[in-house]
Amino acid sequence: MAEPTLPTEIHLDIVTPDRLVAHDSVTSVTIPGKDGYLGILPGHAPLLTELVAGELVYTREGTKQFLAVNWGFAEVLPDRVIVLAQSAERAEEIDVGRAEKAKVRAEERLKRFTDPQVDMERAREALRRAMARLETAQALKK
Ligand code: ATP
Q: Quick one: pLDDT at residue 142?
């Protein structure tokens, strides 16, 4: 009996509540999973993972593409990855000034940890989003 052939590409979809951010055939994807960064090549075992704010990188035609994603889920299949994210921006779409302001705002809130008015977890999440955007935008400078 013939051996089943392994897929050589991954069909990647990245979707947010507002838009389809990516719909591409890619050769690798790295996603920021809850338990750390997860590298995916064609033929990967199926899994479902929660996403955290971080950098998603994929390779298309030998070129790396960088995106900042916020919380969500990813479904991995041997020839397909579907990312459902609360927000996702390509590196070139990121407004660095806005992310820097969001980072400063979150840091100021976190300094007021004795103030019961401040929702610490919300501030921490805002900081993670801002850091993910700034880190992703840096990829354009490399
Ligand atoms: P801010 O306080 O600056 O609004 P935020 O982290 O609260 O930042 P989100 O709620 O994560 O913002 O995102 C709201 C919308 O704005 C999303 O569509 C997201 O893609 C977009 N967005 C947020 N920050 C940026 C940024 N720095 N550059 C480009 N788009 C951004």
A: 73
Pocket flag, ligand 1, residue 119 (CB < 6 Å): no
User: Which of 15, 67, 70, 98, when mutated, tests ligand 1's pocket best, judged by the most ligand atoms within 8 Å of its CB?
Assistant: 98
Provide the CATH number for the domain around residue 14.
2.60.15.10
Q: For position 25, what pLDDT does the model report? A: 97
What tens digit of pLDDT does each residue of 21-51 get?
Answer: 999 999 999 999 999 999 999 999 999 999 9
Give dist(CA 67, CA 30) in Å, integer: 10
The verdict on residue 1 lying in a domain is: no
Q: What is the pLDDT of residues 1-28, one digit of tens each?
A: 677 788 899 999 999 999 999 999 999 9
- The CB of 89 under 6 Å from ligand 1? The reply is yes
Q: Which residues of 45-76 are buried (b: 16+ CB within 10 A; e: fewer)?
A: eeeebebbbbbbbbbbeeeebbbbbbbbebeb
Report the nearest-CA residue for atom 10 of ligand 1. Answer: 87
